[in-house]
C-alpha cells in the first residue's frame, strides 16, 4: 500500500547544465514500468531546479522534482533564503527538511525543522524529514532517544492526515558519505522504530508514512534494505550523481 520512493540528493553538486544531462541520462535508463513501481525523485541544487523542471516538463518525464532545503517564511528580508512558495511554483513536489548536514553545519534545530515541515505542507509539497544519530550517540546507546526526539519534535502540531502523507528519512550520520552502510537488519529495525514513534502520536496514519533509509546506499546494498518491511525507499547521496548507478538503485529488484 506504500509506493516505493527512491530520491537522489545531489547536495552541492552539478551546475544547471550538468543537471539537464543528468536528468536526461537517468530518463533513458528507466522504463514506464519502473515509475509504476517506484516514485523517482531528483533533488538538484536550487540553481539547477528550473533547468531540471524544464527537461522534465518538455520531455514529459515521470521523474519528480525535489529541493534540498527551504526557509519557512513565505517572503521577506531573509537574504539568501528560498521560500516553499518559490519552490512550488517550479513544480517541486518534495522538499528535504532537516538533513543532518543542515543541522550540523548550518545549525538547524528541531524547531526550525518543524516549522519547515509545516511550511512545505502548506504549499502542497511533501516534506522528506530527516533524522539520524551521530557516531558518538550510537556509541553511547542514545540512537533511539535521539531519533525518537527528532521525529516527535519535527512532527509536533501536525494533524494525522498531514502526517500520513509525509516521508521520513532515517539517515545515521556515521553512514553518510563514509561507505559504511547500516546493516539491512539495523536499518530495518530503526525504520520500524521510527514508524512506531509516529504511531504513538498519530495512530494508524503511521502505516501510510513512507520511511526511507539513507547513508551509503548503492546498487550493491539496496535490495537487502528494500526487503525490510518498514523501509519504503532510499535517500541516496553520492550514488545519485551517476545516472547509471542511480538507475540501478531505482531498479533494485533486477
Ligand atoms: P551518501 O549516499 O553519499 O552516503 O549520502 C546520503 C545522504 O546524505 C542523502 O541525503
Please tell me about this protein's structure.
- This protein has 12 helices and 8 strands.
- By secondary structure, it is an alpha/beta fold.
- An 8-stranded parallel β-barrel has the order 1-2-3-4-5-6-7-8, surrounded by 5 helices.
- Strand 2 (38-43), helix 3 and strand 3 form a beta-alpha-beta unit.
- The longest helix is centred in the C-terminal third of the chain and has 19 residues, at 184-202.
Outline:
The chain is built from twelve helices and eight strands.
Write the layout of secondary structure elements.
Blueprint lengths: L3 E6 L6 H13 L3 H6 E6 L2 H13 L5 E4 L16 H5 L3 E6 L2 H7 L3 H13 L3 E6 L3 H5 L3 H12 L5 H5 L2 E4 L13 H19 L7 E5 L7 H5 L6 E4 L6 H8 L4
Parallel strand pairs: 1-2, 1-8, 2-3, 3-4, 4-5, 5-6, 6-7, 7-8
Helix pairs in contact: 1-3, 1-12, 8-10
The protein binds 1,3-dihydroxyacetonephosphate.
1,3-dihydroxyacetonephosphate (13P) binds next to strand 8.
The CATH topology is: TIM Barrel
Helix count? 12
The CATH class name reads: Alpha Beta
N- to C-terminal separation?
21 Å
**Estimated share of beta-strand residues:** 15-25%
**Approximate helicity band:** 40-55%
Shape: globular
Order of helices and strands: EHHEHEHEHHEHHHEHEHEH
Question: Which spans have pLDDT < 50 for at least 5 consecutive residues?
Answer: none
Strand order of the largest sheet: 1-2-3-4-5-6-7-8
Per CATH, the superfamily is Aldolase class I
Radius of gyration: 17 Å
Amino acid at each position: 500500500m506504500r509506493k516505493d520512493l527512491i530520491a537522489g540528493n545531489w547536495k552541492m553538486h552539478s551546475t544547471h547544465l550538468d543537471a539537464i544531462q543528468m536528468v536526461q541520462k537517468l530518463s533513458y535508463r528507466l522504463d514506464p514500468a519502473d515509475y509504476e513501481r517506484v516514485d523517482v525523485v531528483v533533488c538538484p541544487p536550487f540553481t539547477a531546479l528550473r533547468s531540471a523542471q524544464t527537461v522534465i516538463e518538455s520531455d514529459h518525464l515521470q521523474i519528480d522534482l525535489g529541493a534540498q532545503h527551504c526557509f519557512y517564511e513565505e517572503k521577506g528580508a531573509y537574504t539568501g533564503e528560498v521560500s516553499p512558495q518559490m519552490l512550488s511554483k517550479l513544480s517541486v513536489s518534495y522538499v528535504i527538511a532537516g538533513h543532518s548536514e543542515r543541522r550540523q553545519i548550518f545549525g538547524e534545530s528541531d524547531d526550525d525543522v518543524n516549522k519547515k515541515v509545516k511550511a512545505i505542507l502548506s504549499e502542497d509539497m511533501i516534506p522528506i524529514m530527516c533524522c539520524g544519530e551521530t557516531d558518538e550517540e550510537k556509541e553511547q546507546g542514545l540512537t533511539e532517544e535521539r531519533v525518537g526526539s527528532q521525529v516527535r519534535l519535527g512532527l509536533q502540531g501536525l494533524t494525522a492526515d498531514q502526517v500520513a502523507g509525509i516521508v521520513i528519512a532515517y539517515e545515521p550520520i556515521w553512514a553518510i558519505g563514509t561507505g559504511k552502510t547500516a546493516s539491512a537488519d539495523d536499518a530495518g529495525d530503526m525504520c520500524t522504530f521510527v514508524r512506531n514513534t509516529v504511531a504513538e502520536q498519530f495512530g494508524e496514519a503511521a502505516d501510510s508514512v513512507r520511511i526511507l533509509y539513507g547513508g551509503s546506499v548503492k546498487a550493491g546494498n539496496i535490495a537487502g534494505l528494500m526487503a525490510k518491511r518498514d523501509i519504503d525507499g532510499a535517500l541516496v547521496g553520492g550514488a545519485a550523481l551517476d545516472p547509471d548507478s542511480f538507475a540501478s538503485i531505482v531498479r533494485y529488484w533486477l
